UniProtKB/TrEMBL annotation, chains A, B:
Its cofactor is Zn(2+); Mn(2+). Zn(2+) 1 binds at H88, D99, H203. Binds 2 Zn(2+) ions per subunit. Residues 227-322 form the Peptidase M20 dimerisation domain. Its EC number is 3.5.1.87. It comes from Tunturiibacter empetritectus. Belongs to the peptidase M20 family. This is N-carbamoyl-L-amino-acid hydrolase.
Length: 424, 424
């Protein structure tokens, strides 16, 4: 490398702001509200814009059948397994402008900054923008990285149905990706275990710890194990005036008990690493004067310890049995995903510590309670993650915020470690 | 009257079936699913079709500024206050094909049947199809009859906002009715207390009592007092993985407790006439991996005794106070409507009993726990209602059903009493 790595902070911040304009969300007073659901017009516009940025830089660009986007800077020995970085650009409804995007645009800037130093990397360096890290549209997160790592069956994936549409009008992933221009067999998305030499993802913490401790950078040593469930509560509908209370089997009242049961048993573990969230509650028919006949809840439950996570589910299932009998409702449980935790590569963690030391930073080693595409890439490659602080630990909200200085430092450390890994 | 009243059952059933085709609902296996929200394309098509039926019969047709439709058969003394009947044709999502429609198409057939006997009524007979009896779109039921009776302030009505749209994209009633072609000052909708001589509405029971007792016809002697509230629960949003359980102010968990509090205090009255329903539960941001920051619930609570209804609300408010403090959430209550019960006119009830006796029927005198446009028309005219049985007491569902025989009998009794009232 002929000169020092210089991150173009102004350009990176401007690109983050531009990416935030590809949104279906209305402006709000408390920050920048971003809604960018996978394969929506805004997502497709954001992809086209990102490709243009990469092409302008002379990088190679390719999409796979599920729409994962690969931006490659060829190394001097292009047949060696590449070093990779990346994240996602999709955003849940009314989210913020840093989640995922910092890892994608930061990864691009890291590659550009290395190029500006005059470096010719030995191994190729590849930036990946994963399809549908967020579960908003198809009810399951990390679609792209699950398929890359062979964690999700391609046929099952193509049959996934839009989660927030009625069963009879919902489209499948196969239909939606084809309409978006991503065709071909999903089985072709899977990459071999030796395809990447190493993987490193830059991401905002989405928690309060770095800010609380006044530390500008975190090194993720493990990623918590997430699980997703869908509960359907079926009762008896009817007119809100005429269906008498003793005759009711109100699906929403039963669902309310289920929501509180989940909260109660999660708190009962007294473990800080156990978190459970019912994030959606869809009521059918959903009219003010109609007794709810059916309610669908989606549960997200995570733990660093999968056994403890399962013990919470067992306690909830005992409550469901009791609820079923007492309220004469039907409650079905559908497992959407249940994943094992991931450990970071000690070697990449060591390189991160070296680079931090060279920058005079004492990084915080930490667990990621949020899960990321890195969780799945860990099945096929050595991984690690860099966290940067986010204000008040807030994420998935318009007021999500990371400072330009922290963002720039994260990109600089990312670039340095990518350079080291690419020289191996 | 020169000959006996003959109801054209085949035509009436065929018209009910045709009206059910103006729907935004998909077909379902368990019955005819009807969704016809006020001023939707299907509602407007249904109105145009109904007008054609009336015009073909030689009746006069007029709309008022909120879209109430008046179909008039002029009497020999057209300046006398008219006798009126009618109901509504709008339908909540995934409802059935009898609620409201039996009173509108049945009323039309009653007028046609009287005309076929050669009758020239002394007073005019008027059929009214009310706008938005269902609260689906604007969060408040009986919009048309509230305005006719002066129960709702015209300016307040025009400012009503679409209940199921985000605040920043919701349209007002003023905007929606104008776009639908109903213009002019809403104040002009109100009718004088002497405008109608009498009012009689035919409707399905929407409850199980007539079927249970094997009685083909009910005479409504009073209508229960309904109230509508909207609760907004505001907590703290965040990422489902990263926001730790002790730091949470989950709006959906708080809403779940509120739902159960409402149910508990309603059951605690031990009164069969107290019913309360939370029919909608809108979660923001509504993503599986996001902690709910805001939940909006709509409550419908009814009682024949408004004091008992208010005592339930007071008990719920005490729970809300406790919830606010324990969960650090904000809960706001908005009163949508709170109406007094209505009594039927003893004179019309007496005429109904006479006609039933002449038909060899022992009708059931009953309370309507569902409310109807008749509740509001009672503020400006003597009213009564005729109920016909509906299978299993089911309403607001695709499997809602009334037999052709019961429907025809209801129309026949309606026609007979309209003729008597028109001769007064």
């Amino acid at each position: 490398m002929t000169q020092q790595i210089q991150i173009d902070q102004a350009r990176l911040m401007s690109e983050l702001a531009t990416l935030a304009t590809f949104t279906n969300a209305e402006p709000v007073s408390e920050g920048t509200s971003v809604t960018r659901v996978v394969f929506s017009p805004d997502d497709l516009r954001a992809r086209a814009w990102l490709k243009q940025l990469a092409i302008a830089e002379g990088f190679e660009v390719r999409d796979d059948a599920v729409g994962n986007l690969f931006i490659r800077w060829s190394g001097t020995e292009p047949n060696l397994p590449a070093v990779a970085t990346g994240s996602h650009t999709d955003a849940i409804p009314h989210a913020g402008m840093y989640d995922g995007t910092v890892g994608v645009l930061g990864g691009l800037e890291a590659m550009r900054a290395l190029k500006r130093t005059g470096l010719r990397p030995r191994r190729s360096i590849e930036l990946v923008m994963f399809t549908s890290e967020e579960p908003t549209r198809f009810g399951i997160g990390c679609l792209g990285s699950r398929l890359i790592s062979g964690t999700l069956d391609p046929k099952q994936a193509d049959a996934l149905s839009e989660a927030n549409e009625p069963a009879d009008t919902a489209h499948t992933l196969a239909q939606v990706r084809t309409a978006a221009g991503f065709t071909g067999d999903l089985a072709s998305v899977k990459l071999a275990p030796n395809h990447y030499h190493a993987w490193l993802e830059l991401h905002i913490e989405q928690g309060p710890l770095l800010e609380r401790d006044g530390i500008p950078l975190g090194i993720v040593t493990s990623i918590a194990a997430p699980a997703g469930y869908r509960f359907t509560v079926s009762g008896l509908g009817g007119h809100a005036g005429a269906l008498l209370m003793p005759d009711r089997k109100d699906a929403l009242c039963a669902a309310a008990e289920l929501i509180l049961s989940i909260e109660r048993h999660t708190l009962a573990t007294r473990a800080i690493d156990t978190v459970a969230t019912v994030g959606t509650c869809d009521v059918h028919p959903g009219a003010v004067n109609s007794v709810p006949s059916r309610v669908v809840l989606q549960l997200d439950i995570r733990d660093t310890d999968p056994t403890r996570r399962e013990s919470v589910m067992q306690a909830v299932r005992r409550d469901i049995e009791e609820l079923r009998q007492r309220r004469s409702v039907i409650i079905t449980e559908q497992l959407i995903n249940a994943d094992a935790p991931a450990q970071s590569s000690p070697h990449i963690v060591e390189l991160l510590e070296e680079v931090c030391a060279a920058h005079g930073i004492s990084p915080k080693k930490m667990v990621s309670r949020a899960y990321h595409d890195s969780l799945f890439i860990s099945r096929i490659a050595p991984i690690a993650m860099i966290f940067i602080p986010c204000r008040n630990g807030v994420s998935h909200r318009p007021d999500e915020y990371a400072t330009p200085a922290d963002t720039t430092l994260g990109v600089e450390v990312l670039a340095s470690v990518l350079a080291k890994l690419a020289s191996e």
